[in-house]
Amino acid sequence: MRYLDAEAIENIAIGAAFLGTGGGGDPYIGKMMALSAIKETGPVQLVSVEEIQDADFFIPSAMMGAPSVLVEKFPKGDEFVRVFDKLSRYLGIDKVTGTYPMEAGGVNSMIPIVVAAKLGIPLVDCDGMGRAFPELQMTTFNLGGVSATPMAITDEKGNIGISETISNKWTERLARVQTVEMGASSLISIYPSTGKQLKDHGVHNIMTFSEKIGEIIRSNDVEETVKLDNLLTLIDGIELFEGKIVDVIRRVEGGFNFGEATIEGLNKDVDTEMNVFFQNENLIAEKDGKAVAMTPDLICMVDLETLMPVTTEALKYGKRVRVLALPCDKKWRTDEGIATVGPKYFGYALDYVPVEELAAGGRADV
């Protein structure tokens, strides 16, 4: 057990945005919400899954919708606790033990810190993805048979509701319709879980991992090449490409950001081209027509010099970036995991090949 102060939150916001693979929200917005909360209440208690009891009960809160909308449609501020309280009352639980993040992301890793601060409850160091994914059934809890519902949903106006569904896929379908009607973004509490379920099905130590990543990225006392080497060593990652963004195609549809970024090679990658396809999060990286990384492995775009994560809504012409990749959590590298979040689910005619195999010489046609 330890406490998260302002410095820890700064690091977690950046590291979680990196692991968000382009989605999960803007880290500046997320950290400002979390810093404001701990300024009022004091540091938040972070506990490991080893420190919780099997019978303890936990509820997460998260933002749902198109990340680009959050840039203009900022949360009012009371939605996070409102949706958390609504679900806990519906479940008849007088005292929820704590909360946890549903995914890694600049906003969605910060919202549980806000809830923990305002309610005086601990934050568990685990999540349900180990990265960010665009749909609600795309969690390791779903793979473990945990129900996403009952789920509470609210917006900045005060509309609020509870859903109980026949499957986690139906949870996604119905919540997506509500989110679109709420202005393409909403706040949800979902996957209420016991301590045993967090231990068995969560991705452990995600906040600590995010903090370590953020600490490296924010360090200013090392050379650029050393910082990159330190980051790749920590994440067991691969640098796929260096280049300048020359085109971005994006659209908001059905509560998602869809798009493609075209990157013209620089330095060692001169005279080559990379295309990164995304749906909220980066899903496929293609170099000169060949896939070099694919979901569920993490494809992360960062600033060429500072290594600060670049979210999909921040992609723009002329931006110089590095494209990095790292292996996903082992829970995703199962038949059910690949069926749930692999390239074919998103409409790409690709058989999943781990990023480390692609880097060793294996490639797949898009």
From TrEMBL:
- Top-level taxon: Bacteria
* Residues annotated as domain S-Me-THD N-terminal: 8-162
**InterPro entries assigned to the protein according to its UniProt record, in alphabetical order:** S-Me-THD-like_C, S-Me-THD_C_sf, S-Me-THD_N, S-Me-THD_N_sf
One Pfam family assigned to this protein is S-Me-THD_N
- All copies of the S-Me-THD-like C-terminal domain together span 167-355
This protein's name: DUF917 domain-containing protein
Which organism is the protein's source?
Enterococcus phoeniculicola ATCC BAA-412
